[in-house]
Amino acid sequence: MSHGGDRPAFLQHHFSDAEQQRESAKLGMWIFLLTEILLFGGLFGFYVFFRAWNPEMFINAHEHLNRVLGGINTVVLIVSSLTIALAIRSIQLNEKKKTMWFLATTILLAVVFLVIKYFEYEHKFHLGQLPGQFYTYTGIEGTNPHIFFSVYFAMTGLHGLHVIFGILAIGWVLWRTKKGEFSAEYHTPVEMVGLYWHLVDIIWIFLFPLLYLIG
Amino acid sequence: MSTATTAENTQEKVNYLNVARGIKSWLFTMDHKRIGILYLFSVMAMFLFGGILALSIRLELLSPGADMMTADTYNQVFTLHGAIMIFLFIIPSVPAILGNFALPIQIGAKDVAFPRLNLASWYVYIAGAALAIYAIIAGSVDTGWTFYTPYSTQASGAVITMVLAVFILGFSSIFTGINFIATIHKLRAPGMTWYKMPLFVWGLYATGIIQVLATPVLGITLVLLILERAFGIGIFDPAMGGDPVLFQHFFWFYSHPAVYIMILPGMGVISELISTFSHRKIFGYKAIAYSSVAIAFLSFGVWGHHMFVSGQSQYATLIFSFLTFLVAIPSGVKMFNWVSTMYKGSLTFETPMLFTLTFFFTFAIGGLTGIFLGATATDVHLTDTYFIVAHFHYVMMGGTIMAFFGGLYYWWPKIWGRMYNEAWGQISALLVFLGFNLTFFPQFIAGTQGMPRRYFLYPDKYQMLNVVSTTGSWILALGLVVMAVVLIHAMKWGRKAGKNPWGALTLEWMIDSPPPPHNFEETPKIEHGPYDHDKVLVKPDKYSGEA
Prior knowledge:
The complex is a heterodimer of chains A (215) and B (547).
Chain A: H1 18-53, H2 55-62, H3 67-92, H4 96-127, H5 145-178, H6 188-213
Chain B: H1 3-10, H2 23-27, H3 32-60, H4 71-106, H5 115-137, H6 151-154, H7 159-186, H8 199-231, H9 244-278, H10 285-298, H11 314-342, H12 351-374, H13 376-382, H14 386-416, H15 422-448, H16 463-493
Helix pairs in contact in B: 3-4, 3-5, 3-16, 4-7, 4-8, 4-9, 4-14, 5-7, 7-8, 8-9, 8-10, 9-10, 9-11, 9-12, 9-14, 10-11, 11-12, 12-14, 12-15, 14-15, 14-16, 15-16
C-alpha cells in the first residue's frame, strides 16, 4: 500500500504510526510475561502445598543446597539485568558498538549462571539427591525428602530452560544489532528481549530465597 | 444488461481470496482472514474425526453387550473423542476461525496486532494436532481426556505424547489470546470506543483474558504429569508422599475456565445474531459486555465443583457450590437481555437465527441442569452418570457449537462472497436441532436412573434410552452432512452475495464480500453504534445483483 514516502521501513502496514506499533508490542509482551509468571505460579503452588504438608522435611532438605553458589548466581543475574538495561539505553543513544558489548556481556553472564548451576546439579547427582524414584541419599530426616528435590529440580530446571531461551533471544537481537537494524528510532525487539530477561532474573530472585534461604 | 456493467462484472475485484494464488500464498500468509480460513479447514477436519469417533461410541452403546469393539478400544475411543473435541475443536473453533476473520474488521483494523504470531499460532496448532494423531498411532490413550492421576501415570499407551500435544496446543491458545487482547486495546479505529465495540469483540476479549490466565496453569500441570510419568518424581503419587487430588485441583483450575473459553465467544456470536435477526437494538449492551468479563473472572473460583466427591473438605465443597451458583447471574443477565432484544423485534428466521434459537433452548437446558450439579446433594447422586454427559454436551455442543454453526452461516457470505441456499440451510438447522435433542435428552434420564458414564456394557433396562440416543446421533450426523454440503456448495456455486445480506450494522458488513486484502481502503469512520437499528436502517442486499 502506498501511504506516501514518510512511512519508515520498520513500520508494519497495519499500524498507523510507530508509537502504536511500539505500544502494541509492549502490551503483547507484558501479557506474555504474565503467562510466564502463571506457568511458574503453578510450581509455586506445588511448593506451597508440599511445604505445608512436610514443613520439617523442607527445612532439613534445604540445608543441602549450596547457599554460596546460589548467592553468587543471584548476583550474576542481577548484574546481567543491569547490562541488558544498559544495552537498551545505548541503542536509544544510537551507540551501536556499546549496545553489542552490553548484549554480549549479558550472554556471558547467563552462561556463567548456567555453569554454576551445572556444578550444583552435578554435585547433587553425585550424592543421589535426585527427584522422586531416583533419590538415593540417606542423610536427610523427615518424610519423603525426595519431594523437596522434585520441586527443586522442576523449578530450577524450568528456570534454566528460560535462561537458555534467553541466551538465544539475546543472541538474536545482538545479531540484528550488528546488521544495523536497530537505532534510536526503532529498537522494540531489544526492549522486549530486555523485558523477558528481567523476568528470568525476577523469577530467580523468588526461587533463591524460597529454595535456598527460608528455614 | 448494458455492455459496460458486463465488462465490470467479468473483471473481479481484488479481494483477500484472489489477491494471491498458490499453496505458498496460503502457508505463508499474514492476513488474519486467510489464517482464519486455514483454521477453518484444519479445525473442521478435527471435528469430522471427533464426530466419527462419537458415532462409533453411540453405535457400540446401541445394545447392552459388546458388539463392535473391545473394552480397551472403547476406552481409547471415548478418550480420543473427548480430547479431540475439547482441545482441537471447541477451544479453537469460534475464536480462531470466526474471531480471526471478523474481529479486526469489526473494530476497523487492517489486521491483528501481531500477524506473524497469528500465523505461528496456526502452525503450533498443526504441530499439536499432528502429535495427537501420532499418539493414536503410537499406542493410543485410554485415560479419559482429563488425564487423571494416578491412572495416567501408570496406564500403558502414548500418554506422554498426547499430553505433550495438549501442552503445545495450549501455546496456540495463548498466542491467540495475547493477539486479540493487544489488538482490541491498540488497534481500534478512531471513534471505536469500548462501548461501540460489537459484543462479539467483548466476548473474545473476555475469552482472551481466560486464555492467558488459565492456560499456563494447565501447561505446568501437564509438564509435571510428564515428569511424573517419565521420571517418577512422585508429586502425584501417594505412595511417594504425593497427592493425586492435587492434579485434579490444578487441572480443573484451568479446565473449568476453559469451559468459558469455549462458551464466551459463542455468547458473543449469539449477541450479534440476535440483534441482526431481531432487527432491533440490543437490549442492555453494557450488561452483556460486563457480564462477559464477570463470567471470565468468576470462572476462576469454581473449579472445585468438579471434585465434590473427591474427598475435599465439606467447607471447600460448600464454598465452591456457592461460587458456582454465582456464575448463573451473569449468564442469566445475558439470557434475559437476549430475550428482551427479541421482544417487539421484527424477527426473521434465516438459518443463523434458527441456530440462535436452538442455542437458547439447549443452552438453557444445559445451564439449568448445571444447577443440579452445582448443588452438592444432587451432585453426589449424579456424579459420573450419563446426566453429566448430557449436561456438558448441552452446554458445549448445545451452547458453543450451535453458536458456532450460527456464526458460520452468518459470516459465510462475507467469507466467500457467496450466499448459501437458505432453504437447505434451514433444513440442516432443523435436523441438527432434532438430532441433538434426541441424542442427548435421553441421557439425562438414563443418568438419573443410574447409568454410569464411560462404561462399555450396561444393564438391559437402559437399552431403550440408548437406542433413542443412537438414533438421534444419526439424525444429528445427517444434519451436519447437509450443513457441510450447503456450505461447501455455497463456496463455489452460491449466488454472489452483496455487501450486507442481513442488514447488520457492524463494520464487516460495510465492506465488500469477500473483503479486500487490507479490509478497508481507508480508515473507517464510526458513524453509529454496532446495534443502532433504531436510528439507522440499512437495506439488506443478499445478492449483489449478478446471477
